[in-house]
Amino acid sequence: METMPEHRRPKLSDAAAGGGEDWLSALPDDLLIHILLKLRDAPVAARTSVLARRWRRIWALLPELHFPDGTDPDGIRAALAAHDAPALSHLSVAAIEATPESVAAWLPIDACRLSGVLDFQNRGNMDETSAASPLKLPCFQNATKVVLDLDSIGLTLPPSGIFTRLADLVLIGIQLHELVFSVCETELYD
Fold first, then answer.
1. What value does the CA radius of gyration of the chain take, rounded to a whole number of Å?
2. Cα separation, 105 vs 102, whole angstroms
3. Alpha-carbon distance values, 159 to 53, 129, 139, 148 (Å)
4. pLDDT tens-digit profile of 54-89?
5. Nearest alpha carbon to residue 146 among 181, 110, 189
6. 80 pairs with which residues across the strands?
7. Any idea what the Cα angle at residue 77 is, between residues 73 and 83, rounded to 5°?
8. Are the C-beta atoms of 22 and 15 separated by less than 8 Å?
9. pTM of the predicted model, to two decimals?
10. Which residues lie closer than 8 Å to 58 by C-beta, 6 or more apart?
11. C-alpha distances in angstroms, 61 versus 42, 51, 57, 86, 161?
12. Pair 115, 89: CB distance under 8 Å
């Protein structure tokens, strides 16, 4: 069995545990945010706050939040409420058998700050009561793309409001309720 050389390079964890310099925390916020974005998992990124005092709010500055299958709707709501970034460029939520009520608890929170893509995918077998009590879609004024795969959850569009930047709308597995379209003149640019 080989022994470790005494001149080995110290691990990052050795520095933090031994009271030495914490090299990760010395990195600029932009680089830490870039590292956390690579995780593509908001709950995991939030758990990095236990690494060091400086990391406590870094996850809340992420411009993109991705919630994987099985993330608790209350956890999504709490994360969105704690999110401090001035804009959110991508919100992705994968749910399993979400109800209109559970989605309505978190969906409106960042409607005004979302400046890019909303991607919500619901998986599972929904019963007829989910379609009977539809989800009320808030107005995402600055969203550029909205993808809703609701798996039979009913949907009601907002009674007022304008999706001024919306370029793509993808609706999958939905039942529309109280649908009223208002057509206005729009100029499209390539």
1. 21
2. 5
3. 44, 22, 9, 18
4. 888 899 999 999 999 989 999 999 999 999 998 899
5. 110
6. none
7. 140
8. yes
9. 0.79
10. 29, 32, 33, 36, 48, 49
11. 11, 16, 7, 8, 27
12. yes
